[in-house]
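Reopening this ticket.

The earlier resolution said the output was attached, but the attachment link was broken on my side. Pasting everything inline this time so it's all in one place.
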Amino acid sequence: MLAALISDVHLVGRNDPTQDALVALLDGLDTPELVILGDLFHFWWGFPGVIDVEFTPTVAALHRLARRGVRLRFVPGNHDFAIGETLQGMLGMEVASRLDLTWGGRRFVLVHGDEADTTWGYALTRFVLRGPLFAALMWALGPARARRLGLRLAGGSRALAAHDPKPWLVAAQRAWAEAEVRAGRADVVVMGHSHQLEHAHLEGGGEYINLGDFTRDRQYLAVLDDGRCELRRASSG
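Inline output:
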């Protein structure tokens, strides 16, 4: 295996059974590279030198991978867009909003997947939450109160069970992937965000893969030595 990819784990705390399943998966991986395509955390706003105790098991598992020499990459999602610098500092993780990589002679485009959402409502929310005024508010609140506010805005853990994939977003993501393939930028497009697990072969020979909802599906993507892709099920945890 050349790489393992995961997305949309939406960790909420130490008592989250999904965290147990994720740690078991990470500790069992035999791969030179791990790519996380966003929303690893349901919410975590990064503060320098501060590790959220709720996520210590996951951070420790990622640290064990780094010590084994596994290359760690992170594409921020819409729930954990403010944690990139913290992960860089703690784990040496490489952070980018988009990754264009080649594995097994095939070109991969890797994104979180919210690029396909062009609705004005989402654009406005993104603008506000990633703007300087909201950042100033979070810094003023400090880690504990920022976490409470962030989870409230994210909908809390109860919102996860009710997250059904939106058909229009699923279609928009597939169209976005098809455009990347037609433009000659990718043979394989991988994303998350919509929580709709999918592995589709596109016209023209390309592939589109959505990693779904790890909380529900427990799936990760294995990129094999020849560039082929397999969705695999992790331990139920």
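Reporter confirms the inline version is readable. The longest strand covers residues 99-103. The mean pLDDT is 93.
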